[in-house]
Amino acid sequence: MGGASDLYVKDVLNLGVSPEGLLDRLKAKFLSQGGVLREGFAIESVVVQRDGVLVNGEVKGRLLLDGMGHFSPIAQQARGGQKPEGVCLVVGTCGEGFPESNSGDLIYSFTPIVNQCQYFWEAFPAKDGRTTYLFTYVDADSDRMSLTELFGEYFRLLPEYQGVTLEDIQFKRALYGFFPCYEDSPLVMPWDRILAIGDSSGLQSPLSFGGFGAMLRHLDRLVEGICGALAADCLDQRDLALIQSYQPNLSVTWLFQKTMSVGMGQKIPPDQINWLLAEVFAAMAGLGDRVLRPFLQDVVQFGALSKTLGAATVRQPTIAIRILPQVGVGALVEWLGHFLSLGMYSLLYAVFGRMLWLGERAGRGGFVWRCRLSAWKYGSGNDYGDHG
Ligand SMILES: Cc1cc2nc3c(=O)[nH]c(=O)nc-3n(C[C@H](O)[C@H](O)[C@H](O)COP(=O)(O)OP(=O)(O)OC[C@H]3O[C@@H](n4cnc5c(N)ncnc54)[C@H](O)[C@@H]3O)c2cc1C
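Above are the sequence and the flavin-adenine dinucleotide SMILES. Below is the predicted complex in structure-token form.
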């Protein structure tokens, strides 16, 4: 980053998933278990009734899982059409002709702030060659550049990034998207019998465009919560809210997102973001893999975060003062609240985490306890060991 030394880690971002293969397997399993699939069935209306949810006036069930992605009409209605606080723009390609390499870049930056954006790059080997992405964190200001303009920047800078000319590359496909992020996440539905899952729930961190990975990480928790809610008939709004409850380790990442983005009218030194990231990553590297790896795998923990902040402050005592004009006092105070909650969740999980027997009670009591325990566990990043 901006002249800082490279930092190497093993076994992070080392897994590729074929969407076609995954969907085929899921479909076969779902059908073999007696599931009914209606491909091409567009959800146009949902009516919550006393004893169920009616979709398009013809399909009725006890619980509706909204997996319609970031632009789910149900999630948009639940958020009252609110503008997202942050957006991650991503453009990239997959192609052949790059220098042979079995390694990838998790996050790489070599330019200062341009167009009120800090550009980050990611690259990794793929089935059809090499995937390279340019991504940036912005607000939802309507004057922000379009994805087409960002593609222009991608092709302008790709040769410098990968040491190639555009003529060297046989592009196989273009990949792009934008990910709206809401500070009020995960999304708690205001209705009975509806639960958001996947991108529509906003469960992924505003720092990563790894919504699929976030969903996988929470899969055990969600499956347990959903099965428990159905078994105990806990399907009203208040009970379902326990499944998608507050996660302090998600909320603390909002400040990081703010330190990695620039407001439209804001003036900050062009190398500030590169400088800050170089300092923070150097501090984390000094603390070893136990601090660095969870963070790179999108899991924030109280102990690791506290040590990182301490080490970064020792390296650069003025670090907080330097970022203050960029993020604002309000955001810093809000962050402090989430940071303290993160500590509280870690403590609650340490104290009550073994009291699993309380969750074995039948009915609502057991369901509520299991939801609380998993909120403390996942909300403090204590699920990390479960996934490797
Ligand atoms: C360029 C790019 C790169 C990415 N890289 C990664 C990565 O490296 N790692 C990672 O973990 N994640 C990555 N993601 C994110 C990942 O793709 C998403 O998090 C994931 O697909 C979310 O799954 P989902 O099922 O919640 O939503 P989606 O995949 O968006 O699926 C929602 C589905 O709902 C359907 N739908 C919408 N409205 C209706 C309606 N009214 N009726 C019926 N159906 C409807 C849509 O057609 C769609 O099929 C990337 C995304 C992009 C765009």
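The longest strand covers residues 170-181.
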